[in-house]
Each structure stands twice: as C-alpha cells, then as structure tokens.
Amino acid sequence: MIRSMTGYAVASRELQYGTLGLELRSVNHRYLDIQFRLPDELRAVEPALRETLSAHVARGKVECRVGFAASPGGGKSLKINEDLLQQIGALELKVRKIMAGAAQVTVAEALRWPGVLVSEPLPLEELQAACQELLAAAVADFTAARAREGGKLRQIMLERGEAMERRVAGIASRIPQVIGAYQERLAARLKEALASGEEERIRQEVAVFATKIDVDEELSRLAAHVVELKRVLANGGTVGKQLDFLMQELNREANTLASKSVDLSVTQAALDLKLLIEQMREQVQNIE
C-alpha cells in the first residue's frame, strides 16, 4: 500500500465532565516531525501519544491538537473552602470594629471571593486514558485517508510510467529511420570531404555520428527504470525516498537522450519524457 504524507482526521468524545476533541493533520516533509498542541492537563500523556503516532507514520510533518472543554459544572459538586471563609469572617469583624458602620459582607460576596468555591479536580488518569483511546480512533481514520490519497498517487504514477514506456518504444522504433536519414546526410558530407581530400574531417564526422546516434543505452536504462518504478509501486510501503531517487535517474537519462538527439521527433519525445518525469516527481514529494 502506498500512503500519502497528506492526511487529516478529527475525533471527539463527550465525557461526564466535558468534551474531549482531537485533530490530526499532516503535510509532506523530508523526515518524520510530530508536533503536539495539548492542554496542561494532558502534558503527561504526550510520550504515549507520540509512540502511537510513530508506529503508524514514517514520514511527514504531523500536528496533533487536543482540546478539552469542561461542561458547566462538569458533573462535579462545588465545595466551600471553610478555612478561607472563616478567615474572611474574622477579618470582617476586625474591620467593622475599626470602621463603625462598615457594610456587612453578604453571602454572594463571600462566595465570589477567590478560592472560596472550589470544584473537585478532574480525574486526570481517566482523562488521559480517554485521550489515548480517542487518538487510536483518529489514527484509524487518518491512516485510511492517507491510504486513499496514496492510491490515487499510485495510479497517477502508473499512468505516467505507461506513457513513458510508449514514448520509449516510439523512439526505439524511430531510431532505424533516424540512422538511415543521418547516414545519407553523412554520406553527402563525406563525398565533399573526399573531393577536397580532407581525411581529418572524415574522421571527425564519423566520430560525431557514432556519439550522437548511439542512444540504445539511454533507452535501455529508461525502460529498466520504468520497470523498477512499477515494481516499487506494486510492493508499496514507505517508498517515497526510493521513488525520488528513481526520478533523478529517469531525468538524467532523458536529458542525455535529448542532448544526443539528431532528429526532431526524437527530441520532442525526449521533452515529453522530461515532462512526464517532472509530473511524477511532483507527486513523489507527497508519498511517504
């Protein structure tokens, strides 16, 4: 299976004391780079989350965002900090003794005093366990999305590879005609050279002809690289770097073929090959 480095997934869960949400998104990257955006309550679970993601992703820049929104009251009862309330009451008595006529602190004012009302702390272990379970569910969707995108990329690569095979076959079938036409032109030049007695020119013409017309090696390598491309795509896995190397080799052979061409149709076919390779190279940048 070929996987894309681009993916997205989101998951959420309603808990008794709030809503836990998790978002995964990834883009292409040379290596694996995982970044987390977590609330303070879930910092302790980051190593476990990182381990889970690393087991499913080999390359790409991955961002994991986790958010927690406590529900009103959170299903937790409120408690009064009696020690603090007693201190407030004692201070009130002292103030009223010093300042006659000072207004008495109301119940509402006392309850609004910072720290008087406290809620039960969140069950961190339960929250962290829920976060891990939520990530596992999100990773399943995330992996499936990347696999679907990878399947599309694989199909594009195969189509471009088949188009390259057709171009290479067309060039190979054209070469005998190219050789014949070039030999005719060379024969005319040689006659001129013989008439003038320029033996050195004859040797130069023959050397140029032998260098330019011999593209069999380039065609063979192009064909072999396309076969390897199909094999890699069929095997699947983490093949992005391997495919990137193949694109470099294909481009090298196409450049050499274009530089050796002595025929307009061969030159055009070589340019078509370069365009197909560039299209594949763009897609390879998104393959894990």
Provide a concise account of the structure shown.
The chain is of the alpha+beta class. The chain has helices at residues 46-56, 82-98, 107-112, 124-196, 199-213, 216-235, 240-260, 264-284, and strands spanning 7-15, 18-27, 32-37, 60-70, 78-80, 117-119.
Element layout with pairings:
Blueprint: E1 7-15, E2 18-27, E3 32-37, H1 46-56, E4 60-70, E5 78-80, H2 82-98, H3 107-112, E6 117-119, H4 124-196, H5 199-213, H6 216-235, H7 240-260, H8 264-284
Parallel strand pairs: 3-4
Antiparallel strand pairs: 1-2, 2-4, 5-6
Helix pairs in contact: 1-4, 4-5, 4-6, 4-8, 6-7, 7-8
Question: Overview of this structure, please?
Answer:
- The protein is built from eight helices and six strands, in the order E-E-E-H-E-E-H-H-E-H-H-H-H-H.
- With 288 residues, it is an alpha+beta fold.
- Helix 1 links the parallel strand 3 and strand 4.
- It has a four-stranded mixed beta sheet with strand order 1-2-4-3, covered by helices on one side.
- It has three domains: 89 residues, Imidazole glycerol phosphate dehydratase, domain 1 (Ribosomal Protein S5, domain 2, 2-Layer Sandwich); 42 residues; 136 residues, Butyryl-CoA Dehydrogenase, subunit A, domain 3.
- The termini are close together.
- The longest helix is centred in the middle third of the chain and has 73 residues.
